[in-house]
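Quick one, tokens below. Sequence please?
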């Protein structure tokens, strides 16, 4: 006999909420008309956090994806003029990825789209509820509990 999973409904709610967040963010990305996928958006945001242009391997590690996935994302962003490949100044075998001016402009628009999506998602909550949610999310994000499969 198995015991009921008390967190089952909560886990399902979290999954449904995550899907809703992704769906709304994707809609807002499409509305801004940049032709950028959510994965490309994530790569641009990640790229903006580097002080100097990173290698593709650095991006793959930070994004927690295989290097081939980064290559595909960079190919698409390079074709649209958002990023460019540049040679490493100290090692000619290494290629680095940098944002273009067009890419920085796209990041500004993407930031606005993400903000609009967040406003839509959080609209039903009062200020107090938003504060409580923020605290709970911080706890979950920074949680140190043991992982279980």
């Amino acid at each position: 006999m198995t015991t009921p999973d008390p967190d089952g409904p909560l886990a399902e709610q979290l999954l449904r909420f995550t899907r809703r967040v992704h769906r709304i963010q994707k809609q807002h990305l499409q509305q801004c008309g940049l032709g950028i996928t959510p994965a490309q958006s994530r790569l641009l945001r990640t790229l903006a956090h580097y002080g100097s242009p990173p290698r593709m391997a650095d991006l793959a590690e930070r994004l927690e994806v295989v290097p081939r996935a980064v290559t595909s994302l960079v190919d698409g962003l390079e074709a649209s003029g958002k990023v460019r490949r540049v040679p490493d100044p100290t090692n000619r075998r290494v290629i680095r990825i940098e944002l273009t001016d067009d890419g920085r402009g796209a990041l500004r628009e993407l930031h606005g789209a993400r903000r609009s999506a967040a406003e839509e998602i959080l609209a039903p909550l009062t200020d107090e509820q938003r504060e409580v949610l923020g605290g709970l999310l911080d706890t979950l994000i920074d949680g140190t509990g043991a992982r279980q499969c």
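The radius of gyration is 19 Å. The mean pLDDT is 90.
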